[in-house]
Amino acid sequence: MNAAALRASPVLRASHARTPLIKFLGKRSFPAEADHAQRPHPMAPQGVIPSSFQEYRKTAQQHGPLKTGAAAGAAAVGAVFSRSQLPSQYHYITMSAEEAEAIESGGASFVI
Fold first, then answer.
1. pLDDT for 85-111, tens place per residue?
2. Nearest Cα to 87, choosing from 95, 97, 78?
3. Best CA proximity match to 71, nearest among 82, 81, 54, 59
4. Which of 109, 62, 53, 57 has its CA nearest to residue 81?
5. Cystine design at 85: which of 10, 68, 80, 99 (Cβ 3.0–4.6 Å)?
6. 49 and 41 Cβ atoms separated by less than 8 Å
7. Does pTM top 0.70 for this prediction?
8. CA–CA dist 66, 59 (Å, integer)
9. Residue 63 main-chain phi, psi, to 5 deg
10. In angstroms, what CA-CA distances link 85 with 15, 28, 34, 70?
11. Are 81 and 64 in contact (CB under 8 A)?
């Protein structure tokens, strides 16, 4: 192979302008007046915007309550924040050392 044949592709690419595959219809246009008023998210629980972030944090929950200790609110009847609050039949099953080794090795060392 000669060097000219190897350089043909970059030379050809450099000589042609790139044409994008996507085609846009019309010119770009921006609205003269945009409404930037704050609105609650459509899925907001009360449909209102909190007055401050601190107020939001008082009632917010993400994978359990954000408050801890005595200040934490109790869950509603029938609701739990952690799997450990469920009966033992719903707890995670403890894994044996052999099972962990079989998982870590991808099952290659597991013999029936």
1. 888 888 888 889 988 888 888 877 767
2. 78
3. 59
4. 62
5. 80
6. no
7. no
8. 8
9. 55, 40
10. 68, 56, 49, 17
11. yes
Can you read off the two tokens belonging to residue 59?
């009632």
Q: How far is CA 111 from CA 10, 30, 99, in A?
A: 54, 66, 11
Q: Residue 76's closest CA among 66, 84, 65?
A: 65
User: Which amino acid type is present at position 71?
Assistant: A
Locate 55 and state its tokens.
């107020």
The tens digit of pLDDT for each residue in 73-86 reads: 566 777 877 888 88
Q: Which amino acid is at 61?
A: Q
